[in-house]
Amino acid sequence: MVGGEAAAAVEELVSGVRQAADFAEQFRSYSESEKQWKARMEFILRHLPDYRDPPDGGGRLDQLLSLSMVWANHLFLGCSYNKDLLDKVMEMADGIEVEDLPQFTTRSELMKKVNWISKCM
User: Fold this and answer.
1) How far apart are CA 63 and CA 87, in angstroms?
2) What φ, ψ does residue 29 adopt, rounded to 5°?
3) In the chain, what is the straight-line distance between the N-terminal and C-terminal CA atoms, in Å?
4) pTM recorded for the entire structure
5) Measuring CA to CA, which residue among 82, 88, 109 is closest to residue 43?
6) Of the residues 12, 68, 75, 96, which has the fewest C-beta atoms closer than 10 A?
7) Of 22-26, 70-74, 94-98, 111-115, which range is least confident?
8) 99: containing domain
């Protein structure tokens, strides 16, 4: 009955993944595209075991959700944050593949171009 045990283990794993995805779905923002949500949900699910709220509360889940929004806002909207915070969320997101990200130009980059152009004139 090794095959039956393996099938039961696979079914239990699949069920656990479904439950985690269903749990995470409640945190989707109505304004998130499917692409943004899939990336953010992967971020959340990857770190959910480490950020579960303790029985006495503590807001660890809220912290994870906030970190996921920082990461998504930086990636998809070009928002900038404190370097330490960005370093933390980028490390947490290491390995999450997101295709066709928008390209943003920061104010600093624009000012460098303007200064370079004015020096050339």
Assistant:
1) 16
2) -85, 140
3) 81
4) 0.71
5) 88
6) 12
7) 111-115
8) 2-120
**What confidence tens digit (pLDDT) does each residue in 26-44 have?**
888 889 999 999 999 999 9
What are the percentages of helix, strand and coil residues in the chain, rounded to 5?
70, 0, 30
pLDDT digit string, tens, across residues 83-112:
999 999 999 999 999 988 887 777 777 787
Amino acid identity at 14: V
Total of domains in the chain:
1
Length of the chain: 121
- At which residue do the structure tokens 């953010």 appear? 40
86 token code pair: 């960005």
Task: Show the tokens assigned to 15.
Answer: 């069920």
Q: Does residue 57 register a pLDDT over 80?
A: no
Kindly state the tokens that stand for 7.
């099938």
